[in-house]
């Protein structure tokens, strides 16, 4: 599931960046969300999480915030029960 989640995250990040007129750099599981070179801010990240919940039906944050910094860490949150 992690590879498919990475693809979904990349797809949605592409949409967010395009809406802002920005281009995404090449994404890897080690790409850092904030202050890591991606053209997104905290509001964009919150939007991403809402869209991921809508598209997957999962909310790994239901029980509270779970720390993540990279795309791979976020994708992994969707691979295990919250």
TrEMBL record:
User: What are the TM regions of this chain, as residue ranges?
Assistant: none
Recorded source organism is Azospirillum doebereinerae
- Residues forming the Carrier domain are 6-77
Which Pfam family, giving just one, matches this sequence?
PP-binding
Its organism's taxonomic lineage begins at: Bacteria, Pseudomonadati, Pseudomonadota, Alphaproteobacteria, Rhodospirillales
Q: Which SUPFAM superfamilies match?
A: ACP-like
Know the name of this protein? Acyl carrier protein
């Amino acid at each position: 599931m992690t590879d498919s989640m990475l693809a979904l995250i990349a797809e949605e990040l592409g949409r967010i960046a395009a809406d802002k007129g920005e281009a995404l750099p090449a994404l890897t599981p080690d790409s850092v969300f904030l202050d890591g070179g991606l053209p997104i801010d905290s509001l964009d990240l919150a939007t991403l999480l809402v869209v991921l919940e809508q598209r997957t039906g999962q909310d790994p944050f239901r029980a509270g915030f779970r720390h993540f910094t990279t795309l791979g860490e976020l994708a992994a949150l969707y691979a295990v029960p919250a």
